[in-house]
Amino acid sequence: MKQKIMRLLSLLLAVTLFLGTQGYTVFAQTTSGNETEAVGNKEKYNNGKGESNLTELEIMNVGAEANVEEEDAENDAEYQQDSGNSQQEIFLDGNDSSGKNEENNDSSQEKAEEEAVQKKTALKKGTKIVDKTSKAAYIVTSDDGKKPTVTWKEPMNKQSRSINIPSTIKRDGVSYKVTAIGKNAFKNNKYITNIRIASSIVKIDASAFEGCTSLKTVTIGNGLKSIGKTAFKNCKKLKTLTIKSSKLKAIGKNAFKGIFAKCKVKVPAKKVKAYTKLMKNKGQAVTVKVTK
Questions:
Q1: Which tens digit of pLDDT belongs to each residue from 145-201?
Q2: Which residues contact residue 36 at a Cβ distance below 8 angstroms, ignoring those fewer than 6 apart?
Q3: What angle do CA 244, 286, 247 make, to 5 degrees?
Q4: Which of 107, 151, 203, 211 qualifies as a FRET site for 241, CA 20 to 30 Å off?
Q5: Rounded CA gap, 130 and 282, in Å?
Q6: Is the pTM here over 0.85, yes or no?
Q7: Considering only CA atoms, which of 135, 167, 171, 172 is closest in space to residue 153?
Q8: List of residues 6+ apart from 43 with CB closer than 8 A
């Protein structure tokens, strides 16, 4: 742009020198930055020479205006380019927002997957589940989608001295209700000394604790309905058996054979008479007492 201005000034200087030799007084006045006027000697102008010279100036003015228009066009082009860059930047910012939206979508998808896991169907009946929390193995006894159940099969650590049978376990987002202690679950375990059984347990199966010669205390929750045959057979050190349930209806043959002769069986006060009758001839010594 500076070069164009220099060329224009050089051209004006040359024209001025030329007109000066012809007796004209030439001066330039800029109005609005793009118009040049020339005034000469009236006599020279009337001779016709001035007309020719002024025509050259007019041509020069047209060139100057063209240069100005060209410069304006260049400025417009630069402006449009800058505007384009701004629009591109705005567009890129929009892409960034889309990226954030994608992150949000990913987060929503992960949440949906977690919810899907929570709604996952129960494992098939008969499937074995190893639960690390309770440190035991279970067998699925019902794969009902709404109320799946399991039976305690065996402890993972055979040398555990204290055992808590939980009311529920969870696997892959599905909760299973523990409703029974399976057959031979602790049979001949020489280490266990005490056990607590949750109120969700309705059945203690046959020989579940048979031969647990170190077992001293057992506490059973209020949901128990039946005790299988030989369930506590030969638990020689069993001194206290607490049954909180008022629902017990059945006790199998020899369920208490060989337990400690002075074992105390504690039951709800209103069930002392009924349970004394229910426990009759189940293998225990006559010195075993049912109390509240």
A1: 889 999 999 999 999 999 999 999 999 999 999 999 999 999 999 999 999 999 999
A2: 12, 28, 29, 30, 57, 60, 61, 64
A3: 20
A4: 151
A5: 34
A6: no
A7: 135
A8: none
